[in-house]
Amino acid sequence: MRVIVFFDLPTITNEDRRNYRMFRKCLIKNGFIMMQESVYCKMITSPSVEKSVTSLLDNNRPPNGLVQLLTVTEKQFSKMKYITGQWNSDIIDSENRVVIL
């Protein structure tokens, strides 16, 4: 499954810009990758992880602006159509887990 976060935050005042930076850093720190400007996604493994991600974002939400969450399955995500451009990510994004002992 994937959690997709859409956000539209004000950047008028210095405090607004600070809140924007803090929210964006929270997303990146917690494993979200940028799909496009103000749209980030993260692969999750179960509904319980979805609940923890939702509570994390709820605890770190900015005071102003709009933040939306959408959870889709991998099958739904793979059916995404690109009208212009293509998916480009330097980050390996797979369900495989590597354990090095």
TrEMBL record:
Keywords: Antiviral defense, Endonuclease, Hydrolase, Magnesium, Metal-binding, Nuclease. Its cofactor is Mg(2+). InterPro entries: CRISPR_associated_Cas2 (IPR021127), Virulence_VapD/CRISPR_Cas2 (IPR019199). GO terms for molecular function: hydrolase activity; metal ion binding; RNA endonuclease activity. Its EC number is 3.1.-.-. One of its GO terms (biological process) is defense response to virus. Pfam families: CRISPR_Cas2. It comes from the Bacteria. Mg(2+) binds at D8. SUPFAM superfamilies: TTP0101/SSO1404-like. Belongs to the CRISPR-associated endoribonuclease Cas2 protein family. CRISPR (clustered regularly interspaced short palindromic repeat), is an adaptive immune system that provides protection against mobile genetic elements (viruses, transposable elements and conjugative plasmids). CRISPR clusters contain sequences complementary to antecedent mobile elements and target invading nucleic acids. CRISPR clusters are transcribed and processed into CRISPR RNA (crRNA). Functions as a ssRNA-specific endoribonuclease. Involved in the integration of spacer DNA into the CRISPR cassette. Homodimer, forms a heterotetramer with a Cas1 homodimer. This is CRISPR-associated endoribonuclease Cas2. It comes from Acetitomaculum ruminis DSM 5522. The lineage of its organism: Bacteria, Bacillati, Bacillota, Clostridia, Lachnospirales. The gene is cas2.
